[in-house]
Amino acid sequence: MNVEEEVERLKQEIKRLGKPQPDGSYKVTFGVLFNDDQCANIFEALVGTLRAAKKRKVVAYDGELLLQGVHDNVEITLKALPLATSNWQEN
């Protein structure tokens, strides 16, 4: 799996494990993601995938490096997708 595919899978897992927010985003704690068996089977390096997603502005969380135990309660936010804008105009 390349980085883009891993980020897409991460988005799916955050939606599965997280709680939807009124603004369309999803929130989950690092501990929930890290300790989930399915995530453990998908991601060889969850922290690296999270950093890649943060760099791409797909997710947001405090800090740079998340560590099991110490950062289990850090909230990870999957940002809401912007509404698609159409170039179609009515004549």
Would you mind describing this structure in some detail?
By secondary structure, the protein is α+β, with helices and mostly antiparallel strands. The chain has one domain: Arc Repressor Mutant, subunit A (Orthogonal Bundle). 41% of the residues lie in helices and 13% in strands. The chain has four helices and four strands; from the N terminus they run αββαααββ. Strands 1-2-4-3 form a four-stranded antiparallel sheet. Strand 1 and strand 2 form a beta hairpin. The radius of gyration is 15 Å and the shape is globular.
Summary, kept brief:
InterPro entries: Costars (IPR044302), Costars_dom (IPR027817), Costars_sf (IPR038095). The protein is α+β, with helices and mostly antiparallel strands and 91 residues long.
Q: First CA to last CA: what distance?
A: 45 Å
What string gives the helices and strands in order? HEEHHHEE
β-strand number: 4
Number of domains: 1
Question: What's the overall average pLDDT, rounded?
Answer: 89
The geometry reads as globular
Name the features:
single chain; 91 residues; alpha+beta; Arc Repressor Mutant, subunit A; four-stranded antiparallel beta sheet; 41% helix; 13% strand; disordered C terminus
Layout of strands and helices, then pairs:
Blueprint: H1 3-17, E1 19-20, E2 26-29, H2 30-35, H3 37-42, H4 46-55, E3 59-60, E4 75-78
